[in-house]
Design a protein that fits this description.
The complex is a heterotrimer of chains A (118), B (484) and C (331). Chain A is 18% helix and 33% strand. With 118 residues, chain A is α+β, with helices and mostly antiparallel strands. Chain A has two domains: 2-46, no CATH class; 52-113, CPE0013-like (CPE0013-like fold, Roll). In chain A, the strands form three sheets. Chain A has a four-stranded antiparallel beta sheet, covered by helices on one side. A three-stranded antiparallel beta sheet of chain A has the order 1-2-3, with helices on one face. The radius of gyration of chain A is 17 Å and the shape is elongated. Chain B contains twelve helices and 23 strands. Chain B has helices at 13-22, 61-79, 96-112, 122-128, 150-163, 213-218, 289-302, 347-364, 390-399, 415-423, 429-436, 449-459, and strands at 2-9, 29-32, 49-50, 85-86, 89-93, 118-121, 138-142, 146-147, 167-169, 174-180, 190-195, 199-207, 228-237, 248-251, 261-264, 270-273, 277-278, 311-321, 327-330, 337-341, 406-408, 413-414, 479-480. In chain B, strands 1, 2, 9, 10, 11, 12, 19 and 20 form an eight-stranded mixed beta sheet that branches. In chain B, strands 13, 15, 16, 17 and 18 form a five-stranded antiparallel beta sheet that branches. With 331 residues, chain C is of the alpha/beta class. Chain C folds into two domains: 2-119 and 256-324, FAD/NAD(P)-binding domain (3-Layer(bba) Sandwich), CATH 3.50.50.60; 122-252, FAD/NAD(P)-binding domain (3-Layer(bba) Sandwich). In chain C, strands 1, 2, 5, 6, 7, 8 and 22 form a seven-stranded mixed beta sheet that branches. In chain C, strand 7 (95-100) and strand 8 form a beta hairpin. In chain C, helix 1 (13-24) packs across helix 8 and helix 4 packs parallel to helix 5 (164-175). Classes of the chains: A alpha+beta (118), B alpha+beta (484), C alpha/beta (331). The interface between B and C is large, with 63 and 49 residues. Strand 23 (479-480) of chain B pairs antiparallel with strand 11 of chain C.
Amino acid sequence: MVRELTCIECPTGCAIVVTVENGRAVHVEGNGCRRGRDYAVAEVEHPERLLTTTVPARGLSLRMVPVRTSRPIPKDARVNAMSEIRKVRISAPVRVGDVVLPNLLGLGVDVVATRDVS
Amino acid sequence: MRECDVVIVGGGVVGAAVAYELSHYRLKAALLEKEEELSFGVSKANSGIIHPGTQNPPDSLKGRLCVEGNRLVREMATVLDLDFKEVGELVVAFDDDELGRLWLLKQEGELLGVPGLEIVSRDWLRDNEPNLNREAVAALHAPTAGIISPYRFVYALSESAALNGIDIVTRARVERIEHISPGRPGDRARFALSTSAAEFAARYVVNCGGLYADDIAAMVGVHTFHIRPRKGEEYILDKKRRYLTRHLLFPVPTPESKGILVTRTSDGNPMIGPTAFEVEDREDLSTTDAGLRLVLAVAQKLVPAIDARDIIAYFAGLRPAAGDDFVIRAEAAAPGFIDVAGIQSPGLTAAPAIARYVANLLRWCGMELETKAGLRQLNRRSFHLFAMPLGDAKRLVEQDPDRGDIVCRCETVSLREVKDAIAAGATTLDGVKYRTRAGAGRCHGSFCTCRIMRLLAEETSRPVTAVSKRGAGSELVVEDRSDG
Amino acid sequence: MDERELVIVGGGPAGMAAAVEARECGVRDIVLLERGAHLGGILNQCVHAGFGLAHFREVLTGPEYADRFIQRVYETPGIEVSTRSFVAELKPGKVLTYLRPGAVCTVRAKALIMATGCRERTREMIQIPGTRPAGVYSAGLAQKMINIEGLLPGRRVVVIGSGDIGLIMARRFSLEGATVSAVIEIQRQPTGLKRNIVQCLDDFGIPLYLGHRVLWIHGKNRVEAVDVAPVDELGREISEARFTLACDTVLVSVGLIPENELIEMAGVELDRRTNTPVSSDLNYTSVPGLFVCGNAFKVYDIVDSVTRDSIVAGRQAVEYLAACNGGERRG
């Protein structure tokens, strides 16, 4: 089976063609770089996305703290991930990279702050 | 039941002018407005022109009250600190036929007492209105035309009225009016008004109900006129094109309306429009492609340099037309009830004169109007930081730091102005916009809406989810997911 | 009046990159004026990732990208940062007047870099007919509401325009649990990046209607629905194929307009069509020593390019100053 993908790793958006056998990517073509190849394989075998959102702050200089998952998480886990993240409140100052929710959904991925908030 | 001598129904420019007039006398009066704030009805969409009085039949109420109103607005401009600017108007002719009609207009205007009318030549036009289409052959110049902010006029009138004892009640929709028979011989009969806010009783009712004036009149059994709304679309251009015109530009009028004009708002934005189409729905404030095309065609004939790309805002208004002239009369069928209906153009200009006319009608109905001694003056000082010497501006901002905190950057509106607007009665985004211009500029609120919402929530003690554009039902956001 | 060597208006990525570079090249007197409470510009509300691959070789979110520069700016002596400082007037001779809570300041800049970014094209500018209810927002305003204020603007969204900001917001709304019924684009190709079509629309099953136009916005006080129809090659509606989408929110994402009203005041020649300075070369304007960089110079696709070109602006300002000061010494 052949799948056509648009790579999302950079603004170029290469058109990649992946040959899939038994759910595995056996051939990748059209990628402009290494990242694209990795993206294509992951997209076919275990699609994942970085999740970025915001978390309410309490008593800090900003109302909302922007956050991200430290690594991409399974595409389908995002709905549950959003529910979990919404429960968090940040009431102590944070710096870029500080963990605000460790081990999201047991996936071994942390949610970290992306802005300094005092 | 709140007892008054007079209840004024409708808080647009006419109702506010009547309230202002009545605040000069010893009496108890209330002004009732159904919307969340004053000036949210017909007056919201007013073009702000103070007409000289041309283009009205000499024997019309419209004509007489317009000429008198033009005079009164100038007097009130100092007392109420209005932003009235005299710019003059040109009715432009493109051929001999139109030129002929200009002479007729001049004659009619002179019969009404419009001052300073003269027909000006092509040369004059070239020197004094340089961007006007060079094909124009002549124009009728009426120097007493001017521009004003219609909402700020309403606020000045109503704030002064309130300062002098008139009760201003918003969110008060009149639902029923009944007669209360006199309890004892010699007592006057009264009207009892049931509203969505409270019950009022008054010997006199002045119906300034705009688009619903006929419904209000029907409540007391008067069916002598019918409001037929006529929609007008207006398009506002970026302020950086303010150089395009010096005078208000009118084509030679058609019977239907004064035609599509090239004017400007008192804030300096060129404005083109309005159209004139009769509509069924009294709430139809939609703008249309056809309206835009028509407006552009006529506007570009007058000023070829007008470019649709400069349009930054548009809106529609509904004229509460009841036939050709104003309907201002004490209704024989309902003694004490005064109709002030069909107030379409030149209603804004005529408003102060209408108010005096209404005072006379009240006297005629038997009301004693005893002048108060010592009217309280509005303490309004509006000023523009960049219209004063820099040293003065610095001192002002040092004394009041909020003046240096800019909320709306397109119109340079400070935190002080926004707070003052809210203190003066703005409870909605539109209310703040009409009082301060914040949100009315080229980015149309994209940058300042959030901050204004937060200020409204804070200063009116309500959750940010209750902050609205113009009252209940127009809330801006559906949920607050912050920590509150 | 205060005279400063280099004044930079705008503390977003463009202004910050120019400031840091100018400092690196030896200019010691730099004032960076920012009208917001914080540096970072529009990046502060761009909480999504996709920035920095070219410049930092890392995938960063907007705030993280901004943070790299904010750190450098604050660590660098010689760059005076003034926040909540709104430039209200710019006069010929590079004289600026700016307002701050409690102060009005005037400064003459020897060299001036304008890094004032863009505003969004509004519904009014493209004259979409219909009523004017609450719930019609530029995509950037909706982004600010959600990401900065924590407010959900609505629950059923239609996006007009397939510009990147609209696509990003389609995803953002979806992640917040709202339904995005459609993205309507009048052209036959999307105007945003392909990757955004994938990760913002395809990922969430949001239909993209190319070659379609919104004919009417309905709603008395709050948005209730929009009428949509396909258009032919000449852009005219095919009204037999029109349909209505119920919604409570309309996002408008139809392009960005560089903010150059200030330099217009100072007599700089602007191209009326694009609202950008008439220019012989990158960042140059018709006034010597007055540079425009970043989105105010032209609309960029990615911030990495803004950084690259704003670094050049910093250098150009330094060269200009050197020529001036050299000339002064000689003269």
